[in-house]
């Protein structure tokens, strides 16, 4: 709901409404909100409760900065460890992403993007690295959705992913790392393009 803006940035999160909507009790809702606060997706405001975090370019710049440090290293590591099965999985994800894009289904495009990054991170064989990077990915996903909904073409990101997979499939760590660094630099540029003048 936060990612697809059913709960828009800045909105107050009603525990009671969430309990009704999700069919769960107060404890699981509160626990989920605590996790979302740790993921920087909601803010706990004393006397007010939980509020969906805003979309601030400076926040995304910080997230992208972290991703530019972590993900290229992860891709470099994956290039030497990735299996043929994992490469096929990445190619399948990209094919589904392209189909969703052709059908205009941004929700699937955004989710497939997250799935793509998770698959690359898993291929590193380092679950600590994958966990740290995925926390950042979950933070970045709303910015991605925001940019796509404002006309930034997702096709550019898909093309960059294809270049990453090509380098991974040829087990070229230097090239894979370079492609990943380029991808995150471009992601920040794309988000800036989505902002009003």
Brief account:
The protein has 197 residues and is mainly α. It is built from eight helices and three strands; from the N terminus they run βααββαααααα. Strands 1-3-2 form a three-stranded antiparallel sheet.
Written account of the structure:
The chain has 197 residues and is mostly helical. The protein has two domains: 12-52, Winged helix-like DNA-binding domain superfamily/Winged helix DNA-binding domain (Arc Repressor Mutant, subunit A, Orthogonal Bundle); 57-194, GntR ligand-binding domain-like (Four Helix Bundle (Hemerythrin (Met), subunit A), Up-down Bundle). The protein is built from eight helices and three strands. It has helices at residues 15-22, 26-38, 57-81, 84-102, 106-122, 127-149, 155-169, 173-194, and strands spanning 12-13, 42-45, 49-52. Strand 2 and strand 3 form a beta hairpin. The two termini are 27 Å apart. The model has no long low-confidence stretch (mean pLDDT 92).
Task: Kindly list the characteristics that best describe this protein.
single chain, mainly alpha, Arc Repressor Mutant, subunit A, Four Helix Bundle (Hemerythrin (Met), subunit A), three-stranded antiparallel sheet
